[in-house]
Design brief:
The structure holds two protein chains of two kinds.
Chain A lengths: L9 H14 L13 H6 L1 H40 L2
Chain B lengths: L4 E2 L11 E4 L2 E7 H13 L1 H7 L6 E4 L11 E7 L13 H20 L2 E3 L7 E4 L2 E4 L5 E3 L9 H18 L3 H7 L6 H5 L10 H19 L2 H4 L8 H17 L21 H18 L3 E5 L5 H8 L4 E6 L2 H13 L4 E5 L19 H4 L4 E4 L3 H7 L4 H11 L2 E7 L4 H8 L10 H9 L2 E8 L5 E8 L1
Parallel strand pairs in B: 10-11, 10-13, 11-12, 13-14
Antiparallel strand pairs in B: 1-2, 2-3, 3-5, 4-5, 6-9, 7-8, 14-16, 15-16
The chains are: A mainly alpha, B alpha/beta.
């Protein structure tokens, strides 16, 4: 299990990184004889792995933000309380 | 009783096609599709989506209603009629984003019920006011564990890529989508991508990796037929849908203040008195005619569309050629207390009939069947800015509805003076008198009013 992307296996992570590196200089070419949807279906396991990683990051990030925002609202509450006579 | 007529655009689907019979919208369900669709119905998904307004009201009816067309069908589905059919190349950015989010929300809810969607066509979403509604009940199919998302590429081309193209490069999707009915291909989007876009996990997953895969397939097509059929775990399927939802709901256009029309309501040639008179005139005309539907030609941000709704018009469809004003109009439409749908339309070049045999997508003129047309300060843009013959402009406006209000802006108006300052005045017949003469020859004039400032005349007319 990878500590940074818990939902990605080491192999999937390596594969994604390699693809990302390859992609930086790629133009797209039209498909003439193959059903266009095939290109996406063939790599959906990789897309799914990245999406799962992105989901984990999103949850993690919202928890961090939640931590700060709840602290802020707590601060506000205590501020309000302190102004009570 | 007239024969059931097949509606263009539904002929590609072997599961069933859409017909119109005496104003009723019917969908045939083939015997093969019925087996699957009965399982979808049993899941309860259809009832649930209809109940919360995500899916157009749909019920099972006898195939007899399809008449001769229905001999091969197991049964038919009847859908509630969409008041005004529109296409993605007419939607604002905001509307396309709402349609994309509806598709994803439906996909997510379907998965929870063991159902999925067989495709991801943007044409399967329609709008009632500013609210998107899904119309293709037959694209729901039972989900089997491991099934990949068959519509991913279509979703990207028809929803994601046009939105990204707009955000990344500032190029609105309307002309691109109208020119290529399947949407914006990856190749075109990649030309708008910058380095910073390549650092996004979202873009990596849904733009760059599919583009790489496409390229790999072109050089080694045997990859498509070889190996075993790719599978996708249901958790990952859901993760893809949720990632796209998060990404698309966060997409927005950069705010630009250099557009002409977004400030039009506060920046025009008439005074507050003139504005009050115009508001009263339009309101009285709509109250008198009580139209069920209004077409607001050159709706700008929807100020007079709202007025029409407040005067109890049943619904308003707006046409606007400026993308920035259109975005504001759609944002307003989401807040209005009534159905208002602003659409992208250059009135000098409205959406044509196009697609297969030129009949797959109907022209705007064929779809417009409104009761009342508001043409406020648009005639000079068509007749002077675009050199269209005044008589033909009037003919076109009159063809959209049997009644309405036209605001004629004469050559002494400051806005028309600006329009003419940079070009030769080749419009000797562009006068108030000529305008009224042309109008009177075709319709009955109910009322007229002169605005106290500028050179503007309001006319309320009805068909004879």
């Amino acid at each position: 299990m990878n500590p940074c992307f818990p939902s990605l296996s080491r192999r999937q992570l390596m594969c994604s990184a390699l693809m990302a590196a390859l992609l930086f200089s790629l133009p797209a070419t039209a498909l003439a004889y193959i059903d266009p949807g095939t290109a996406n279906i063939l790599v959906q396991a990789v897309i799914g792995a990245i999406a799962a990683a992105a989901g984990t990051i999103a949850v993690f990030w919202s928890r961090i933000r939640g931590l700060f925002s709840s602290k802020k609202s707590d601060d506000k509450k205590s501020d309000n309380n302190s102004t009570q006579p | 009783m007239t024969a059931a007529r097949r509606i263009g655009g539904s002929f590609r689907d072997p599961s069933g096609q859409v017909f119109e019979n005496n104003g009723r919208i019917l969908r045939s369900v083939s015997t093969a599709a019925a087996v699957k669709f009965d399982r979808v119905l049993a899941s309860g998904l259809i009832d649930e989506l209809v109940a919360d307004g995500s899916l157009v009201p749909t019920k099972k009816v006898s195939r007899e209603l399809l008449q001769a067309e229905g001999t091969q069908a197991a049964y038919a589905l009847e859908h509630e009629r969409i008041p005004f059919v529109t296409y993605p190349y007419e939607w604002s950015f905001g509307a396309l984003r709402e349609a994309a989010l509806l598709h994803l929300k439906i996909q997510e809810r379907a998965l929870a019920k063991g159902v999925t969607l067989s495709d991801a066509s943007a044409y399967n979403v329609q709008f009632v006011g500013a609210k998107p509604v899904f119309i293709d009940a037959l694209s729901f199919i039972p989900y089997e564990e491991g099934m990949p998302w068959a519509g991913h590429r279509q979703f990207c081309e028809q929803f994601l890529n046009p939105l990204l193209m707009y955000v990344w490069s500032g190029v609105p999707h309307h002309a691109l989508f109208r020119g290529r009915l399947e949407g914006v291909p990856n190749g075109l989007l990649l030309s708008a991508a910058r380095w910073r876009h390549k650092l996004s996990l979202n873009a990596l997953a849904h733009v760059f990796i599919p583009a790489w895969s496409e390229r790999a397939l072109v050089s080694r097509p045997e990859r498509a037929s070889g190996a075993k059929r790719p599978t996708l775990a249901s958790g990952r399927y859901l993760a893809i849908v949720q990632q796209l939802s998060r990404w698309i709901s966060a997409l927005s256009l950069p705010t630009r203040k250099d557009r002409v029309w977004t400030n039009y309501a506060s920046d025009n040639s008439y005074s507050l008195d003139g504005r009050d008179l115009k508001v009263r005139f339009v309101r009285d005309a709509i109250l008198a005619d009580r139209p069920r539907s209004v077409l607001d030609i050159g709706c700008n941000t929807g100020e007079f569309s709202r007025l029409a709704l407040e005067a109890h018009a049943g619904m308003v469809v707006g046409l606007e050629a400026d993308p920035a004003a259109l975005e504001l109009a759609f944002a307003n439409a989401q807040r209005f207390n009534g159905p208002f749908l602003p659409l992208y339309c250059d009135t000098a070049n409205p959406s044509p009939s196009q697609g297969w045999l030129g009949r797959e997508r109907e022209s705007l003129n064929e779809r417009v069947r409104t009761d009342f047309a508001l043409s406020l300060a648009v005639i000079h843009h068509m007749a002077i800015a675009r050199n269209l013959p005044l008589a033909e402009v009037i003919e076109w406006i009159l063809s959209t509805a049997p009644a309405g209000v036209i605001e004629f802006v004469g050559k002494q108006d400051p806005m028309v003076k600006v329009l003419l300052s940079s070009r030769e005045d080749i419009f000797p017949d562009y006068t108030r008198e000529e305008f009224l003469k042309l109008l009177e020859a075709r319709v009955k004039i109910v009322a007229t009013a002169e605005l106290p400032s500028g050179d503007r005349t309001l006319v309320h007319y009805r068909a004879r």
